[in-house]
Design brief:
single chain, two-stranded antiparallel sheet, globular
């Protein structure tokens, strides 16, 4: 989708010159697009039927976008407090929304057959 290659902006604080990475220039506007591109690529390369993501917003939105671009299903598991704007964008990408309580997340994931599940705690 074109993630990466985001510009570096020079910032001079008077004491030091640094560069800030402008990640809002990624396709969905989030730094999580780099992770999403990797996860969707891994799911496709390993012939998974789809992706399951537990998210409270930005990661789910990003992965749903990348999954839709790759033409694979995405199941988003979130709490009922999911931001309505994020939920609306996720729905545009045909991600299945499962709004459930936190302690039910793993049970739902176990019930899904042959779906790719990764998070920041299980990157490989």
């Amino acid at each position: 989708m074109g993630e990466g290659g985001t510009p570096l902006l020079p910032v001079d604080s008077g004491q030091a010159s640094v560069y800030i990475k402008l990640e809002s220039q990624n396709p969905t506007g989030f730094h999580k697009d780099r992770m999403s591109a990797y996860l969707v690529s891994m799911a496709k390369s390993q012939n998974y039927k789809g992706i399951v993501i537990a998210s409270s917003g930005n990661a789910g939105l990003s992965i749903a976008s990348y999954a839709a671009f790759a033409c694979i299903p995405c199941v988003l598991i979130a709490t009922k407090q999911l931001n309505p704007d994020a939920a609306g964008i996720i729905e545009l990408h045909d991600a299945v929304e499962n709004l459930i309580r936190l302690k039910e997340r793993l049970q739902v994931i176990r019930l899904q057959s042959n779906l790719f599940y990764k998070n920041i705690y299980t990157p490989e």
